[in-house]
Design brief:
The protein is of the alpha+beta class and 158 residues long. Helix content is 30%, strand content 29%. The chain is built from three helices and six strands; from the N terminus they run ααββββαββ. A hairpin with a 5-residue loop joins strand 1 and strand 2. 18% of the residues are buried.
Length: 158
């Protein structure tokens, strides 16, 4: 989170009113590239190609310069195309929207892929444990996974 704060200071320092931001600016491209690089650390399935940000533009800007939507195109996983929109309000990063979750503007570092994966795993484990055996609702041996109590390895085959 410290790096994100420093980046926001950088973006806001470069463009105090956001009215100064210009499409295609190298400073704007570098700032957007860095924001996506930081956010990509939360991605579960894709890997951002650092330095690939192109076609950076200010899509929307309020008259007073306090709110803006930045847009950029990038590559991930060695050349696959993607895009990002970043919304800034009052000098703060409000949210980020990515091509693969279009319409969802989320906080930086809050990739939905982790929630989706967690939901699937929880459902699979709940299903494996529900067909079980005895009075304590544990699966019969060889029929699923049992809680281990170990946070590093929460389940074991039983």
């Amino acid at each position: 989170m410290r790096r994100i704060g420093l980046l926001l200071v950088l973006v806001c320092g470069l463009f105090p009113s956001l009215g100064e931001a210009r499409d295609g600016s190298e400073k704007l491209r570098a700032a957007l590239d860095h924001l996506v690089a930081v956010d990509s650390q939360s991605w579960m399935f894709n890997r951002y190609d650092v330095g690939s940000m192109t076609n950076v533009a200010v899509q929307q800007r309020s008259r007073d310069g306090g709110t803006a939507t930045l847009y950029g195109e990038y590559t991930y996983n060695g050349g696959a195309p993607g895009w990002v929109r970043v919304r800034l309000e009052g000098g703060e990063l409000k949210c980020m929207e990515f091509w693969d979750f279009s319409g969802i503007c989320r906080p930086i570092g809050a990739s939905p892929s982790h929630r989706i994966f967690s939901t699937v795993v929880t459902g699979v484990l709940a299903g494996a444990m529900s067909g079980g055996g005895g009075s304590d609702d544990r699966p019969a041996p060889g029929q699923g996974y049992c809680p281990s109590g170990d946070p590093d390895h929460p389940f074991y085959p039983c």
